[in-house]
Amino acid sequence: MNAIEYQRDPYVISTDKTKLDLNTIHEYLSQRSYWAQGRAITVVEKSIEHSLCFGVYHQGGQQVGFGRVVTDYATFAWLCDVFILESHRRQQLGKWLVECIMVHPDLHEMRLFILATRDAHELYRRYGRFEKLENAERWMIRRVSR
Asked: Over its length of 146 residues, how does the chain's per-residue pLDDT go in tens digits?
């Protein structure tokens, strides 16, 4: 699969995994996110390997954001691990990242696209056209304690 890039000076969003800064991603997820506290770097690395990833970069290539989509590229996608570093917030980057993910040619016609958020419902509703889960009683989850 060819990498796709979206430009908005002085930022770039790219699906090229070779550009990803594993240490930046791991540090944010394992230490600053509310959903991935303590996640091991080996788990982050493996999750990137098996996902469609979107890196957000400032001029010069410094990674300042990230989003990951777990998908079968046909019917289902799960958006997760989305973040923008605090020092680059208020630049509309989260909105732009969600918009770029939603128009990606392998994702834009996905039949089922899900995500979970504690505090960004309006962002995803407005820029990704996500809605509250209908028929939530049909869904089940299995958690493994570690």
From this structure: 789 999 999 999 999 999 999 999 999 999 999 999 999 999 999 999 999 999 999 988 899 999 999 999 999 999 999 999 999 999 999 999 999 999 999 998 889 999 999 988 988 888 878 888 888 888 888 888 76
Q: What is the pTM of this model?
A: 0.92
* Range(s) of the domain holding residue 56: 5-138
The answer to the question of residue 40 being in a domain is yes
Residue 146: inside a domain: no
Q: Which of 75, 85, 84, 144 is nearest to 113 (CA)?
A: 75
